[in-house]
Amino acid sequence: MSDELDSDLRDRISTVVKRAAFLGRLAEGPTSKRDLRDELGVSRSTVYKAVRELEDRGLVTETDEGVALTLVGRLLREECRTFEERVAAVLDGESLLSALPADVPVTTDLLVGAETVRGERHAPTGPVEHIDDFVRRTDRVVGFTPVVLPQYVDIFHEEVVGGDLTADLVLESPVVEYLRENHAERLSESLATGRLAVRRTDETLPFGLVVAEDEGLVLIVYDESGDLRGVLLNDTEAALDWGREMFRTYWERAGDESD
Predict the structure, then answer these.
(1) Which backbone phi and psi does 59 adopt, to 5 degrees?
(2) Which domain holds residue 119?
(3) Most buried by CB count within 10 Å: which residue of 37, 64, 179, 234?
(4) How many independent structural domains does the chain possess?
(5) pLDDT (tens digit, 9 = 90+) per residue, 72-87?
(6) How much is the pTM?
(7) What keywords does the record list, in alphabetical order (predicted)?
(8) Spatial distance between the Cα atoms of 141 and 217, rounded to a whole number of angstroms
(9) Could you say which of 84, 109, 138 is where a domain stops?
């Protein structure tokens, strides 16, 4: 891309962002400059300047019904709105994302439409309660974890042995060893049902993940010492696609531990 084209592109992007309020209003339909002034609460001169800028860049046109978006204007407004939604989603999840390394394979598909729950001093078990509720609402999950908490052992043993939960899990090797040393009976009982499949990995898992086709997913964030920082819940199809691919990647690289 030449410097001239690059400069024009930056100029158009700047205009779309700067005049987002005007484009947003015009996305609802054509309107007069007077109505733009009144509805957006700006001066007459600001309206005329904005319309001129947008018209010069081919984003709006004057019609018998008033100022209207062109096709280019509509498409760029939609892209701008998508960008705004994704930026907002990243910022909403910032408190948890800041605990993860910069190179983890997280995308905005996971974040848009998500609910974030952090452990608080007055309610440190809040994230675990969300995991518990999520797992108990479904009959099949897949996932992986770098950490095991006593509550996880309780949840999966109760639901696999005493209920009808089927689970495929990838666990870090130290987690498997911990379970064999400290919860051997419950692990054996769960595996004996045929509804729990465990694979171990020597990789360092960047976070925990539980995916259920009928519920969505839970991303579980730990700090460097293994303390639970919070969870991110999402049931959008884009998030599920991301979660399925994440699980598949680690599952296929892990070794069997179902004996």
Answers:
(1) -95, -25
(2) 93-256
(3) 234
(4) 2
(5) 999 999 999 999 999 9
(6) 0.84
(7) DNA-binding, Transcription, Transcription regulation
(8) 9
(9) 84
